[in-house]
Design the sequence.
């Protein structure tokens, strides 16, 4: 960064903290270019989209006859998954099983939101509790590895448990909260947005820095769920929010009105670790602000002005005193002293490239998906 002239997009707020960003003659970044040329023309959150969603619902209902559940939703208590549960039950008329994966970092608000949705929607909830000793060991190993991708342990636990549970109980349809409305600007790899569950990377880092075996920790490699689960077992991942109007503030208001659901200050704040990692660890240690991608998505979809985003990004999301207390909390929960966590924080930054990984193969798969129109977000 010190050798590269700083530049920020003229349309959104993505900037050269993404080392691979490119700008056109207007000063628009490649994320904005991709949104207007690739996502927007193929995204129909209108009557056409809702008609398509109803067709999908009828297909799922037909195949789910005679079963206890016809689909499954991973529920975190955050906005995307919560609104997905509402759409799936009330609009699609399906019978989903809600699966919550407890990795040890739930906020009280997230727990409360889950309870309210389950009770008011009359749905069944199954909670998968991750072995805390193994979870803790993997998280500390990732921290000691000094990479930016510190949410790999949680993401791996959440999605692997979901896929394994679906396979075990032969639930074919997995409905997620992934969407273009708030996520059309994909966070770059360099910002810790590693693209999928890479068992090779996880095992290499854990072999170097872990202390106990991961005997029960769920790890379903990306090649397994993208190929075997999909093409052999027939599992389908569907994103209902891409078919309906999904405006962040309106969705929050709807959930609050119907269920007493409580909104979060920012995306991913339902996890106490993710909140700490994205608001403290990432900006201060690596100089990356994931909020840039989050706000840029809202700018592209007309939910936030660029000036509003610039004002918001100019200040930390949480005040410094709160974040310092969270630093102590995270250290204590991981059985580290504050001094030990501080030493890790001050260590030399590394990337996933310093460890064994299959990023090259994942990239090939992503490029194929882009050519087939199955992945429309910018993927380098």
Sequence:
């Amino acid at each position: 960064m010190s050798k590269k002239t700083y530049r920020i997009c003229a349309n959104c707020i993505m900037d050269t903290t993404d080392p691979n960003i490119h700008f056109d003659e207007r000063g628009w970044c490649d994320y904005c270019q991709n949104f207007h040329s690739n996502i927007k023309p193929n995204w129909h959150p209108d009557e056409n989209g809702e008609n398509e969603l109803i067709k999908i619902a009828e297909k799922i209902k037909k195949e789910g006859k005679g079963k206890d559940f016809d689909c499954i939703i991973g529920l975190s208590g955050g906005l995307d998954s919560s609104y997905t549960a509402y759409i799936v039950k009330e609009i699609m008329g399906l019978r989903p099983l809600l699966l919550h994966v407890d990795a040890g970092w739930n906020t009280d608000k997230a727990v409360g939101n889950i309870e309210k949705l389950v009770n008011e929607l009359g749905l069944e909830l199954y909670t998968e509790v991750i072995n805390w000793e193994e979870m803790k060991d993997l998280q500390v190993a990732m921290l000691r590895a000094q990479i930016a991708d510190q949410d790999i342990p949680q993401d791996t636990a959440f999605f692997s448990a979901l896929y394994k549970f679906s396979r075990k109980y032969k639930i074919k349809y997995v409905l997620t909260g992934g969407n273009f409305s708030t996520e059309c600007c994909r966070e770059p790899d360099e910002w810790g947005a590693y693209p999928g569950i890479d068992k090779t990377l996880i095992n290499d880092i854990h072999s170097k820095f872990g202390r106990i075996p991961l005997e029960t920790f769920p790890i379903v490699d990306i090649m397994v769920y993208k190929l075997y689960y999909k093409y052999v077992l027939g599992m389908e991942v569907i994103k209902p929010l891409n078919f309906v109007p999904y405006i962040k503030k309106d969705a929050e208001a709807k959930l609050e009105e119907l269920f007493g659901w409580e909104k979060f200050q920012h995306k991913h704040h339902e996890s106490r670790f993710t909140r700490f990692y994205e608001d403290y660890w990432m900006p201060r240690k690596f100089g990356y602000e994931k909020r840039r991608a989050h706000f840029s998505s809202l700018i592209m979809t007309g939910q936030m002005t660029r000036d509003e985003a610039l004002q918001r990004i100019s200040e930390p999301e949480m005040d410094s005193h709160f974040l310092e207390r969270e630093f102590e909390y995270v250290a204590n929960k991981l059985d580290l002293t504050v001094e030990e966590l501080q030493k890790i924080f001050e260590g030399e930054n590394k990337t996933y490239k310093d460890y064994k990984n299959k990023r090259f193969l994942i990239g090939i798969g992503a490029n194929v998906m882009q050519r087939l129109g199955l992945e429309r977000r910018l993927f380098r």
